[in-house]
Design brief:
Number of strands: 47
Main location: cytoplasm
Largest sheet: 3 strands, antiparallel
Pfam family, one: KH_1
Keywords: Acetylation, Cholesterol metabolism, Coiled coil, Cytoplasm, HDL, Lipid metabolism, Lipid transport, Nucleus, Phosphoprotein, Repeat, RNA-binding, Steroid metabolism, Sterol metabolism, Transport
Low-confidence stretches: 1-67, 83-101, 953-967, 1239-1249, 1279-1289
Distance between the termini: 6 Å
GO molecular function: mRNA binding
Function: Appears to play a role in cell sterol metabolism. It may function to protect cells from over-accumulation of cholesterol.
Structural class: alpha+beta
Mean pLDDT: 78
Amino acid sequence: MYLSQACKVLIGASQVQSAASGKCSNATEAAPFFWGFSVAVLTPESFAEHRSGLKDQEITGCVPEDEAYIPTYLEAFPPLPEKGAPGEKAGEPASAWGSKIRPIKASVITQVFHVPLEERRYKDNSQFGEGEEAKVCLDIMQRTGAHIELSLAKDQGLSIMVTGKLDSVMKARKEIVARLQTQASATVAIPKEHHRFVIGKNGEKLQELELKTATKIAIPRPDDPSANIRITGTKEGIEKARHEILLISAEQDKRAVERLSLEKAFHPFIAGAHNRLVQELSQETGARISIPPPSLPKDEIVITGEKEAVALALSRIRAIYDDKKRKTTTISVEVKKSQHKYIVGPKGNTLQEILEATGVSVEMPPLDSSSETIILRGEPDKLGPALTQVYAKAKSVMVVEVTAPAWLHRFIIGKKGQNIGRITQQLPRVHIEFTDGEERISLEGPTEEVEQAQAQIQDIIKDLLVRMDYTEVIIDQRFHRHLIGKNGANINRIKEQYKVSVRIPQDSERSGLVRIEGDPKGVQLARRELIEMVQRMENERTKDLIVEQKYHRTIIGQKGEKIKEVRDKFPEVIINFPDPAQKSDIVQLRGPKNEVEKCAKFLQKIIADLIENSFSLSVPIFKQFHKNIIGKGGANIKKIREETNTKIDLPTENSNSEMIVITGKKCNCEAARDRILAIQRELANIKEAEVTIPAKLHNSLIGSKGCLVRSIMEECGGVHIHFPSEGSGSDKVTIRGPAGEVERAKRQLLQLAEEKQVNNFTAELQAKPEYHKFLIGRGGANIRRVRDRTGARIIFPSPDDTEQELITIVGREEAVRLAQKELETLVKNLDDVVEDSMVVEVRHHRHFVCRRGQVLRELAEEYGGVAVSFPRTGAHSQRVTLKGAKDCVEAAKRRIQEIIEDLESQVSIEVAILQRYHRAVMGPKGCRIQHITREHEVQIKFPERDDSAAGQEAPPQENGEVSPDAESAPRKCDVITISGRAEKCELAKTALLALVPITVDVEVSYELHRYIIGQKGSGIRKMMEEYEVNIWVPQPEQQSDVIKVTGQIANVERAKLGLLERVKELQAEQEDRALRSFKATMSVDPRFHPKIIGRKGAVISQIRKDHDVSIQFPDKGDEQQVCDVIVISGYERNVEEARQAIQQLVAELQEMVSQDVHLDPRTHARIIGARGKAIRKLMEEFKVDIRFPQPGSDEPDKVTVTGLPETVDNAIDHLLNLEEEYMLSVTETETMAAYMKPPSREDSSAGPAKGFVVRDAPWNAPGNKAPDMSSAEDFPTFGAGVAPKQTSAWGPKKF
């Protein structure tokens, strides 16, 4: 009911407006105006607005202006129609609510159908709900989105309930029938021509039929002569489908199609003007009549529909044709081809108008025909008027041409077509066409309008010829882009400055003609400037600078910042850098000769500085020292870079390179190199030696791709040998590395240099890479024997060399020849493959083949790729086969025998280390254990972890020594087993015990613990990482002075020293804090405190900073604190100096005076300025403080000025001058405001709104009262429950 009441309000208001407008227009029947359904809640205010809106639309005509029409209550609020009211008739007029509201259908539907037992496809009831039927239903539910429920009836039939959207339910039903119900098939025969109606448009009818009947319908193809349609599905579905198909066929039997061939010339008479006659025929007969369009050369008219309707339409069309055939005649006229389009009109409308007016058909020749003959067909007495109309239409449009220079065309058109747009808006039927490059404008349209347009265009042309001029200048095409400038800067400036248009031809036009159009004076000035620019460019000079491409980016700078500075310095010079892809070094400068020379010198200076700063040095530094050179957080490297002004690049962590590259000035690079080398020398016993070797021998000593010098470096413990750069002429060769290795490398280098100088003979030998290890021998034994016998030096390729088979022999010729012969013999023997065998006990086999044959792989690598084959597991054979070069096989057999001897002599010893130390002994990722096993050639096995034993007390083990109690009863989880040779096991045991962590107590005062721990534990964490130990600090509540350090012996000792050093630092800091805690107080009048503090604390902050002290002022809100005492704390001397500085400041403040000056409050804002800018400037200028009164002050004009007496007087004089100046402006503004008319308020005199008035309302009846619009009962809000009252002005409430 609340809804209907609200709607009544809305409809009633709308009907008032509708009724008023209807009454004024004398309409007998109001048009329906409310088609939708919407709700609006109108408040008294919105009612008033609505009424005022209605009142603003003045109602004139029938109702006098002073008398508004008052509607009745029923007119304003029509009642809702009662559902099924008695006496309601079909012929009753529609109510104001419009037609009946259509019910909304539910989007989800449910269908239930039954499958009899005999038609069920799956009849096994023992698995109901689990078998194939359930699987099929689940699949259908997933595919269609419908919900399916199965139940078993008493007759063992299936009841199926499908729920979902209509489309989903229909699809699911079809699939259920097809997959759960046995299928039958039947055929139905209907005429072949009816098949297309069964299929429907795009097959939609057939799909709908299949879904509706849950069947599959197969219709024969058009080329198939069969008329039988096959239906597959359930019996019920087949019957339904058959019935529907027969209904479609029966419906089509009632229809007929007639094709009538009539002369094309008479078609317009049958169709009528604008096809009205044929439409009337279709409506009267109910048949569909299709007449081919005039453009289609067909005579056939097709009539379709019910047989009776088709027959009636056919007879009517024949009657029209026969009548026109008998009565009409024709005449032919000649009309110019160009005028034909005006006779036809837009979309043939003109022809239709002539036919409608005169009943004469006008036949036009085809557009592609050259014929100018037009035929008029009609009754003789009507041909005359029709001919008159044809000639009138032909002459209704004229075409004229206006001559205008081609360059003026765009000015005639105007900016964005403004000029021509005004003409076409006034004369819309005139078509204006401009031809590019021709001096004519074509106008086409009605004669009168064309003449008007012609006159307007000629006026525009005359005006433009007076105001506009043009000139043409021939400018070489190479200067065009310079005239345009970057992003059109030059040409746009000329256009704006001289108000002209400049047309520069495109590059593709290959033309030098530049056209200038616009104001005559501007055209001449622009022409002069363009010619001057060209002359300047002709006098320009172009200079090429050769600058290595690697410097280009540096000269340009980031985002072009550096080159922008150069261009700003030389604005007339254009600097062009080549494209990076061109790999060119030429930088082009273009501009005035003098400027180009200056710019070239400036750039050459920049390039010289760059070259000087791009000197590069490479320093070899051992990889393990790189992190020390970088320093913590990059501190060391950053310091070296800043102090030497160089760029230092280190190789990446995963790189094998040891070279550090230094770039900058030569002297700076050398200084940085010395500092880096000094760090390396400090960290290790690094020695540097210089050897004098003639420069001519350097290349031969280095060898092919550095192979000779690299072999010396590798042989001598990784020393660095640095040769001077080629062409330097220096003989000094630097050797750097461990002291002993440097001397060894020095001897070898000098020996090699001597050999090179005496006999520098080199030979090369090819050998397979897998033979190299065998030729070298274990520990280099084989190759050393060859060297000792021959005296030649043999160099094998490194893994990075491309030629992996090339062996180089260096020395005296006879020695080289002898070594070459020996090596060739060895290689030849290696190429002779033999097969041999040896006996190895089965118990040792596992050692060789375990770890994926690691031992066998090592044998193959070491002995020239020899293949060793052990028998398969379980074969119980002791025969091992070796295949390879004879010498390699023999050597491999000897090595296998050595390994067997080692295995047989192996012992296992046990060492007891507490389980809790095992992880520390192993190290990160087991690195410590791996190192011991490699170094001592032993196997170490740790026991399984026993968590249950972790909490048990174990005998103490201190500093790696096992106690007697532990030896007598070691726990299984503590025992580590070492296997290998007896002597090596003992060494490994010693090494293991050395890894057992020890604990040392360090005495540190309890007060210092928190400083050692650091913020969030950072201090203690840093020490543990640095010394690789664990540091335990006691809990604060224990107040213990003992800190425990746990780790390896060496690390613990280092950590202990570091901890004690940190304690010394902290004690020194404590002493310093004690000295800094000196305090002094001074009494200062509180009125001086703000001055001492200064604006935003500027003054006091400067004192604190200058004297390194802390200064505290008393809190304003603290009543217990003395209000004039200032506390200063810091070093005693600094405190005294700060106190003197404050006393001096106070003395200056005491000399200051304060004076009041009275200034008109209206000038205060002007004196203060925007955000106080003006008053701050004034205070800084006169060295005074100026205070203005607060808003609401008793004395709003009193301003206080504080400062030294002379400065205060000067400031007051200046303020009074400002007041006098500003008051003139204030007085003038107020005088002007007095004469300004105040804004009128037209609506102020309007009387109160009358509200919304209706006649014959329910509350006008005796005993009723008007509803209270503020009442929640009479005007409830939606959703609010209100107790109903018994009586209401609205009548009884309906629920």
